[in-house]
Amino acid sequence: TRTRTKRSRRQPYSVKMNTPFYIALRYIVSKKGSQAVSFITGLAATAMTIAVMAMFIVISIFSGLEELNKELISNIHADLTIKSKEGKLLKNPEEIISVLEKEPEIKAFSKIIEEKVYLNYNENGEIAYLKGVDSVYTQINPIQKSIIYGEYPSFQYQNEVVVEGLLNNRLGIPIGGDDNNTTATIFIPKAGEGLINKEEDIFNKEPIFVTGIFAENEQLNNYIIAPIELTQRLLNLPKNSAYQIAIKLNNSEQADAVKRTLLKNLADDSIYINTQMEENEAFWKMINTEKLIIYLIFILVIFITTFNLAGAIIILQLDKKQQAKSLISLGFTFSQLRKTYFYTGALIVCLGVFFGLILGTLVCILQIQTGFFKASVGLDLPFPVKITLYNYLIVISSAFFFGLMVSWIFSKVNRHHLSSN
What we know:
The protein is an alpha+beta fold. The chain has helices at residues 2-29, 35-76, 93-102, 137-140, 165-171, 228-234, 255-266, 276-279, 281-319, 321-329, 334-370, 389-410, 415-419; strands at residues 80-84, 106-121, 124-133, 147-150, 160-164, 184-189, 203-214, 223-227, 244-249, 271-275.
């Protein structure tokens, strides 16, 4: 008899532990009850769904933009760049090159000289940037793929160059000519002292022939790409001189490891080596700042959305006041009653996050497959989108943090209110 009595008492106790969750689940799925409660509960779940969906889509777009920028910069900037700490000119380029040739992780490297110049054609002039490169440069930056008219220089002649499109449009330099009527002139100021008697005392100048135009690019705005011999001659520099050496690796992810190895082997205090990220540090800071601001804005949106959740819990408490009294009289504790309202809010959050992520993922997949949404009306460039596990974790953690916090705060039971008639 004692054994049966103990078992009969234990059985309701185990069910009683799960009762708050079952009651909360019934509040959510049951079609019976007050229409006001059903409407506000549905509104809270819908608001959470829309907020989660919007946050996931925008963060995925920023991930896509980040990936696109990485791809663009990888085509423009080298994996590693060697520069001089003291002035522009590298002191020992031959020694540096001998070390680079022995490094198995290096795919290619190119010497570069970059200087500001004055470009003149038919008495029209523009300030531009002259980038002198060797024939290996196309392995670092496939600039030849950006040629929209003409062709990339063959490097058989030192005066053949390619010019950025907008710069060439402003000056109207003919493409592919080899006579005096199609020749532009590059001017670089001479360094030195003394009296100036004629133009030759002020500038070094060289005629150039434009063989092609490459597409306008923010990273190469107003640029002229020329053989490095031309820049060496304009600047009166030795044959093997360079301002920097750009390096392409077999695996760009090994940039930091190769950088440490090169610094150790070179043992030269007059140089420093930048990775691609370090070379564009200001750009990535701007991207990360914009991403953080957007994230904080959507955190605020989700926080505001949770006020619908708070309203749903409060209306539920008022509507179920008589039921709560009945549960208390049957042995329900205030703690369990609070858990019931908390579980109700948590279930609303779960529904909002679940459907929000499903809808957001479907929209992102649609954009990836079709490119329906364009970045600009006149530009045939779809918004880049990238779906990552990190984006899911960010959205889920943000929504659950605020949703569960609000559910716990507003699930507090007013004992005096329940005890009053």
